[in-house]
């Protein structure tokens, strides 16, 4: 796996990670490739592209996470939740998805790599309940913005926020949001495509 690409990207994102954390990130991608043959977890299988599109794309959120409890809605193969959990070990991450096969992969990877600050939930977000609430609810290209906020508003803690990742500027979706929001353009090292972050406060 391309450690040089990862190191360069981390520098550009101003993120300092230990060698062991970087190794965990790359090992996660290797496990993803291994399981992908049977579980169809990702369409991206070229190693350098995986570092950019999965790891660095996920880690571009790191400076916006307030913590300490983060919910990753529709985590799929574990993005952005797993890279952020490795980079932010003091925070608790809950990864939610309705696809049991993908959660089986994540569960095995967590056990193999010994990532302690992640819990998995097999559920749809509107059916999931949590008494503590989450400081951050994040999602990467899941549902429409307004629908995701509606379905997860019972889970956000007082003073919490939604961190919703989109590709191109989501003009039409923003018209449907009934809350105050701001948009940040994400600069993902090595990624030419547009990335935007919609930040919505509770």
Brief write-up:
By secondary structure, the chain is of the alpha/beta class. Helix content is 39%, strand content 22%. It has one domain: Vaccinia Virus protein VP39 (Rossmann fold, 3-Layer(aba) Sandwich).
Topology:
Layout: H1 3-13, H2 19-39, H3 47-59, E1 69-73, H4 81-87, E2 92-97, H5 100-113, E3 118-122, E4 134-140, H6 145-152, E5 156-166, H7 171-174, E6 181-185, E7 196-201
Helix pairs in contact: 1-3, 2-5, 3-4
Mean pLDDT: 95
CATH superfamily: Vaccinia Virus protein VP39
Low-pLDDT parts are: none
Structural class of the helices, strands and pairings?
Answer: alpha/beta
Q: Give the number of DSSP strands.
A: 7
Q: Which percent bin holds the helix content?
A: 25-40%
Task: Provide an overview of this structure.
- With 202 residues, the chain is an alpha/beta fold.
- It has one domain (3-201): Vaccinia Virus protein VP39 (Rossmann fold, 3-Layer(aba) Sandwich), CATH 3.40.50.
- The chain is built from 7 helices and 7 strands, in the order αααβαβαββαβαββ.
- The protein has helices at residues 3-13, 19-39, 47-59, 81-87, 100-113, 145-152, 171-174, and strands at residues 69-73, 92-97, 118-122, 134-140, 156-166, 181-185, 196-201.
- A 7-stranded mixed β-sheet has the order 3-2-1-4-5-7-6, sandwiched between helices.
- Helix 1 (3-13) packs parallel to helix 3 (47-59) and helix 3 packs across helix 4.
- It starts with a helix and ends with a strand.
């Amino acid at each position: 796996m391309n450690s040089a690409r990862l190191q360069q990207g981390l520098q550009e994102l101003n993120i300092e990670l230990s060698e062991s954390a970087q190794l965990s990130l790359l090992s996660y991608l290797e496990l993803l490739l291994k399981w992908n043959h049977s579980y169809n977890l990702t369409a991206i299988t070229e190693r350098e592209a995986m570092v950019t599109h999965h790891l660095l794309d996920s880690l571009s959120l790191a400076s916006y996470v307030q913590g300490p409890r983060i919910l990753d809605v529709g985590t799929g193969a574990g993005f952005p939740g797993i890279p952020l959990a490795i980079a932010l070990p003091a925070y608790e991450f809950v990864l939610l998805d309705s696809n049991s096969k993908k959660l089986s992969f994540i569960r095995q990877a967590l056990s193999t790599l010994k990532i302690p600050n992640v819990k998995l939930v097999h559920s749809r977000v509107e059916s999931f309940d949590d008494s503590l609430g989450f400081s951050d609810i994040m999602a990467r290209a899941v549902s429409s913005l307004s629908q995701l906020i509606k379905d997860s508003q019972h889970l956000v803690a007082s003073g919490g926020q939604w961190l919703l990742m989109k590709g191109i500027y989501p003009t039409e979706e923003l018209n449907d949001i009934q809350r105050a929001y701001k948009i940040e353009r994400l600069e993902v090292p090595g990624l030419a495509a547009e990335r935007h972050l919609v930040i919505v406060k509770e």
